[in-house]
Amino acid sequence: MVELYIKQNAIQIYHQEKVMYMLLLKLEQVPLLLGFILGKPLEENFRRSLVLARGDFGVFLERPVSAAALGVTVLLLSFSFWSYWRGKLKKTAIV
């Protein structure tokens, strides 16, 4: 009974620390919350897919839907990095 209380208390403190860091770093809360909730199931299913495909990453490009999703993800990440980099260049040019 005591061990269960200690484990639950430790988990609660761990989650409180996560929330504290999110607030201190002024991070967006919705994407982080989605990551916390969906991260573990996505990782488990990703591993399961790779085990079934015997480690071949090409399985994610065989179907048009998954290939399109990966393509959109790459485009969004590229645009995000590009706009961040461009904003940094503009800030240094103004100063």
List keywords for this structure.
95 residues
The N- and C-terminal alpha carbons lie at a distance of 61 Å
Tally of individual domains: 2
The profile of the biggest β sheet is: none
Structural class: mainly alpha
Low-confidence blocks of residues:
none
The count of helical stretches stands at 4
Residue-averaged pLDDT, rounded?
A: 78
Could you estimate the helical fraction of the residues in percent?
over 70%
What would a concise description of this structure say?
By secondary structure, the protein is an all-alpha fold. It is built from 4 helices and no strands.
Which helices and strands, and how do they pair?
Elements: H1 2-24, H2 29-52, H3 59-62, H4 64-94
Description of the molecule:
- The chain has 95 residues and is mainly α.
- The chain folds into 2 domains: 1-54; 63-95.
- It is built from 4 helices and no strands.
- It has helices at residues 2-24, 29-52, 59-62, 64-94.
- The longest helix has 31 residues, at 64-94.
- It is flat.
